[in-house]
Each structure stands twice: as C-alpha cells, then as structure tokens.
DNA sequence: TATTGTTATACTCTATAACTATA
DNA sequence: TATAGTTATAGAGTATAACAATA
C-alpha cells in the first residue's frame, strides 16, 4: 500500500528535525535558539518584544532564549537608543559568520532535494509544494479564527 | 524572489505542528502522546520496550508518557502473560474510537492537500515528494553513520 | 494607563545513570 | 549476566501571572 501524501510530508518534517538536532549537538544551539538567530539575521537588531512576535513565542520565553544565546556568545544585548525600557538584541560577528554558513548549507540542501526528483517532474513539484503550503496555511488560519 | 523548495517544506512542517498543537488543546493529548497512541493502534498491545523502539525515545520517557496516558484514560497497563518483568500497554475502547476518528481526519486532510495541486501536476507531486523523502532519509542515515 | 522586560512557578519532553525484579 | 521497568536527577522549551521601570 502506498503511503499517503500527508504521511510523506510528515516524514520529511521528522527527518529535518532529526537532522537539525544532530547537526547542532555539542554547539550549544537548539532549534528554538537557531530560530531566534534566523530572525535576527533577517530583521537586524531587534527588541525582545519584536523577537517574540517573529518567533511566535511569549516574551518570557525570549528572555530565556536570549539569556542562553548571550551565554554562548551568539548575541549581545545593547541599550535601546530611545526607549530606556527596551533592549536591542544583535548577532555577534561570530554568529553572523555561523548564520552565513548555515544559509549556504540550507541552499545546498534545497538543491540536493530537488535533484532527487526526476527532471521532468521538478516544475510540477515546485508548483505543487507551494500550492500545498498555501492551502495548509489557509486551513490553519481558518481553524484559528473559529477558536 | 521565490522561496526555496526547502523553505516550503519547512513551512509545511511548522503548519502541521501548529495545527496539531491546537487540535489537541484541552484534550490532555500532546504530539508525543499521540505518537504513542498511533504506535499502539498499528502494532496492537505492546511492551514499553517495544514502544520505545517504535517511537524512537528512551524507555524512561515511555514510562512518563504511558503514566500520563493512563491518567487520562487513553491506555491500560496489563500484566504480560509470560514475562513477569514486562507489562503490556493497550488502548482503551475510548482511545480506539478517538484514533479511528483521527485516522479518518488524516486521510481527509491528505486528500484535501492533494486537491490543492493542479490536476495535471498531481502524479508528479506524489512521485517527487516520495523521492525527496527517500533521498532525505538516506542523507540523514549517512550523517548518522559518520557520527 | 500601557508597554518592556524580568522574577516566580509550573508542565511537558527529553536524556543518562542507578536500582529492583525477573529471565 | 542480561532485560523490563522504575526512581532520581537534569536540562530545554513552553506557558501564565505578578511586578518593576519606563513611556
């Protein structure tokens, strides 16, 4: 019996997570902390409130994640120039280098995955996966409203 | 700029997780506990060692998950018929009904996702996603050996 | 009065190590 | 001696609620 499309997608998600967990082992990084680093690379220096929004977690949680990332030298807290309640979190030069490398690996992995698809199927797969992501996002948003 | 295929797949994984978390809210279920229930529905009554293997977690962790599921009435522990060291964990009738419903939802969601893909792309998407899953599994297994 | 970040507390998932009862 | 499950301990991620300083 063929596995369902959904089962394949769930399997892919599990494999990514397993791979990430091992790739970060021993580096002091975890998926949640890398998520913060990604947000900082894309958005630049940010307040913790902003990070909470970008990562979809509570401000309290961001405090803990930034504490850990500060401890491992990945980020720095600096005073906010105009709002003395807030702090700005920014990547250290080392972390910028790490994130640049990670982004390259990311692009290479994406290319490697596409190379596993038969050449005549590649366009359809890119279109189809994008359509699935958008459809699923709409379903989840709809379920969220009905809450 | 088009998002990478990999970004789409990661987005799909995040959306599934978000949807599951909300679907289970208030039921006492969590992704890890549902994983145990799935394993039990597919494998039938099982020892905790067997569940640890099926779920890919430590036996100690299974003890905690089964404790929680027993507390919410989803599973029962019964003595193993031939090995007095072991226990058999089995679904309660209520949990069997819950899992049957969940399996139906699962199939419907899979069909819904496929329906979001253009009809002429569907075969290619099913082939391509399967190929990606197998390719990724091989990459992860290879990285695991090099450990 | 509203917002930013923190302290306090709690729950879940996860792991390793040591221990008990049984094979 | 090896295996099944548990107790003990620890760390990470997550949440809510109460509080301080500042806007």
Can you describe this structure?
Two copies of one chain form a homodimer. With 147 residues, chain A is mainly α. Chain A folds into two domains: 5-116, Arc Repressor Mutant, subunit A; 118-147. Chain A contains six helices and two strands. In chain A, strand 1 (75-79) and strand 2 form a beta hairpin. The longest helix of chain A has 24 residues, at 122-145. Chains A and B meet through helix 1, helix 5 and helix 6 of A and helix 1, helix 5 and helix 6 of B.
Q: Could you list some keywords that capture this structure?
A:
homodimer; two-stranded antiparallel ribbon; Arc Repressor Mutant, subunit A; DNA-binding; 69% helix; mainly alpha; 147 residues
Question: How far is it from the N-terminal to the C-terminal residue of chain A, by CA?
Answer: 36 Å
Overall number of structural domains of chain A: 2
Content-based structural category of chain A: mainly alpha
How much of the polypeptide of chain A forms β-strand, as a percent range?
A: 5-15%
Biggest sheet character of chain A: 2 strands, antiparallel
| Low-confidence spans of chain A | none
Q: State the total count of DSSP E strands of chain A.
A: 2
Radius of gyration of chain A: 19 Å
Order of helices and strands of chain A: HHHHEEHH
- CATH homologous superfamily placement of the largest domain in chain A: Winged helix-like DNA-binding domain superfamily/Winged helix DNA-binding domain
Helix share of residues of chain A? 55-70%
| Assembly category | homodimer
């Amino acid at each position: 019996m063929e596995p369902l499309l959904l089962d394949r997608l769930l399997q892919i998600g599990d494999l990514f997570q397993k791979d990430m967990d091992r790739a970060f082992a021993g580096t002091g990084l975890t998926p949640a902390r890398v998520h913060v680093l990604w947000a900082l690379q894309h958005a630049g220096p940010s307040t913790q409130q902003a990070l909470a929004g970008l990562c979809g977690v509570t401000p309290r949680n961001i405090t803990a994640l930034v504490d850990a990332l500060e401890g491992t030298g990945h980020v720095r807290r600096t005073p906010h120039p105009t709002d003395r309640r807030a702090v700005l979190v920014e990547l250290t030069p080392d972390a910028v280098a790490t994130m640049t490398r990670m982004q390259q690996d990311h692009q290479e992995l994406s290319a490697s995955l596409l190379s596993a698809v038969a050449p005549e199927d590649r366009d359809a797969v890119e279109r189809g996966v994008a359509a699935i992501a958008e459809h699923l996002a709409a379903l989840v948003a709809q379920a969220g409203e009905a809450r």
